[in-house]
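User: For my dataset I need records formatted as: sequence, then structure tokens, nothing else. Please produce one.
Assistant:
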Amino acid sequence: MTSQPERPCPRANQRVRLAYLVSHPIQYQAPLLRRIAQEPDIDLTVFFGSDFSVRGYRDEGFGVGVKWDVPLLDGYKYEFLPKLRDHGDVGIASPLNYGIASRLRGRNGDSAFDVLWVHGYATVNAMHGMMAAKSLGIPVLLRAESWLRDRGRSSVKLAIKNIFFEGLKEMVDGILPIGTLNSEYWRHYFGDDVPQFLMPYAVDNAYFAQRAREAQACRASLQAELELDPSRPVILFASKLQQRKHCNHLIEAYARLARIPGTEPNPYLVIVGDGEERAALERQAAATDFASIRFCGFRNQSELPRFFDLATVFVLPSRHEPWGLIVNEVMNAARPAIVSDDVGCAPDLIEDGVNGCIFPAGDVGALTNALRRVLETPSASEAMGQRAFERIQSWSFEEDIRGLRRAVASIVPRFTA
């Protein structure tokens, strides 16, 4: 993490009181919240709707029980709101809580916070929080993953959405876009009426870079566990095995890498993850008669850097992928990434042919060619990986802090960006 210049600690009444409303503790967000809490002039309190991610839950995408092995609640103030409904997942009305308005109001009936930051807008909780804030005169910042390249909707649904956004615009004082495509989304619906402050979708770069470096020492043991020849390159897929992730396209492209019919491709294909498509993908892999495809099942977050270190190149061929934070993680291991143009991080993180490749979603031939480009020589993939590492260092929590501070300064006059 980049060192920060020391600032004098402000008096308590000078600190900006920032409330953050989010559905549940999210593994990617926890280190960012810890980082924000370190700012001496920001008094952060997080309000969660549910604790299902802390208790452990069944992730429908992975198809297995999940309990994250990284700390989700350390290093910042938080409160779980009283529940009316909690199905152990996130939907329009789940979790559903009460008490949001009273927390924002405080004990004396005036505003207990200077700013409310809300993650997402398409839930009852989010709308409740924003309406309560506006009734108390508390400005609202909004952050979400949405983009325009979404699934098709009827003209009636689009008309309703436009009406909804006209009302939403009146409740929001600033937008915190996560990247280029998300910024385009907000400009489409809000125009220039609501200011934007880039708060990029980032991961804990220092953590993933350090874990990747540590993994080098035990690379041989993982190669032995997976029965991999260390002299052969490795193509890595690590995500939920869902239809929209299109691991099937990767298996098809991988099969096309065989130079001579009846022989195996030189690289291995390592697939990390689980989900409803696993059985179909295993059948597809078995039909190739290749002995070089490995299915490794679900692996928790702390285990993934071992697979990043093992990889020569990472591939995410998804459709409808709003961002793809695992690409950030892989880049911290100095590995190139091949992503479809339907992966939201592509315009911001991947420069085609420089630190990875971008191919048209669904175009298996183009994916095959991208794999050949990256794997052409060991030096080519290594150079791309180094440039990937350099790129991700400027897409970090420090940029998040700067964006958040600019946003708060725009609506709280006494605060300095």
